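hey can u run this one w/ glutamic acid bound, need the structure tokens asap thx
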Amino acid sequence: METKVRFAPSPTGPLHIGGVRTALFSYLFAKKNKGVFILRIEDTDQNRYVEGSETYIQNALEWAGMIPDEGPSNGGAFGPYRQSERKAIYQQHIQELIARGKAYYAFDDAETLAEARKNAEIKGDTFRYGAENRMQFNNSLSLTKADVNAQLKGDYVVRLKVDPGNIITVYDEIRGTIQQDSDLLDDKILLKADGMPTYHFANVVDDHLMEITTVIRGEEWLPSLPIHQLLYDAFDWAAPQFMHLPLILKPSGKGKLSKRDGDKDGFPVFPLNWGDTAIGFKESGFLAEGFINYLALLGWNSGTEQEVYSLKELESNFSVQGIQKGGARFDYEKAKWINHQHLNAMEATDVYHYDLIKKQLQGVDSSKHLALLELLKERLFTLNDLAKEIGWMQDPESYDEKIVRKLLSKGASDIMAAISGVINDLNDLSGLKEALMPWAKENEINTGVMMQSLRIALVGKLAGPDLFKICSILGKNVTLNRIALAISFFNSKT
Ligand code: GLU
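ok here u go:
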């Protein structure tokens, strides 16, 4: 049987990274098994629908490189792929369940239910509409046929008839067998008064009709699994296999990673910007490859030391055995480190393609762009780090005075003047190292002091990339100028 995995987000706002991680594991499982990855938009809850979120979901998947084989934008043989367009299918299936005696109409108004809920709470009980009390309410099990027909002209819902006294057994590939006492379950609403199905009903009907073999979703849906199992049983359908992924936890402390954690500590929890209310990994300077690689490690490991993977490598290495049960702690520093590994492995010309990079190079002589990227890509954790890495393209605004004093005591001014002489004799600075090092040795010049003085002269502080490459990019004139400026500063301190 061909493996078919669906990602079934609700368009209720931007897709949180937990959602993207679910999409990724679904995608990887499908690809690993040479199967099909389906996008289904679960938009039956009109109250939670947020304009623009479906497009956001599509864009996020596309950016991450997870193109659905079937979905609302590219179609497929099992469409429509938007639940709001499948109303007739749900109507037909709800009728089938009612005919099988597995579901029933219920006409109770909101006040009656609120009252019943309140009474249960007063007694310290949880209100449940089910086998124990359903005959006290207004529904097609408790009313006469004539009353039911009359009431069907008004508002009604359809509820699942949960039989009491059963132990429902479900199986999750990650967590094993789980059992649930049916007495603790509600007669869940399957079809709402607005004619739309609830999540549980639409989800099961669609997974069956779309021939889904594997359902991968967040662990928050695990408590719903027994209800889904009852629905599969009610239709006499075989259930797909299930995998419920562990939560993504806050960087520290208890609980699920939230937007607030990101806002507080300045990191993204969404793949892309959402207007100006949420910042994305993309806009924070992540490569799609780095982002996806980090997400894969949030709840999965290969059992080896390897942590850096391309999407293609993830596709072939992914395994259900590597998915952990416990929560996966979000670690932004680790995410950046993974991104850095991908950036560093890229060709400078490829790094140059990114608009975020081009923006930071504005105002810099374009003949130097590639050389800069060649030199600096190994220092970038995100694409946005470039601006602070090219600060030395400008003359230093100040010099680290503590170092200057130390260097002065070791004859730095004279050494710099002598270096200027060596540089003057060169045509360009690509061979500076080869000229300067033997010269220092011959003249018994302390290379430590020489290098530090040169770095202070060029950058202002003892940090930055390879000094000889800096000189070569800045060119002979700028280098000589900066040395001269530094000498006069040094001399003003004596
Ligand atoms: N629409 C549900 C969600 O937003 C999907 C849950 C599932 O995959 O069954 O998470």
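The CA atoms of residues 343 and 351 lie 7 Å apart. anyway lmk if its weird
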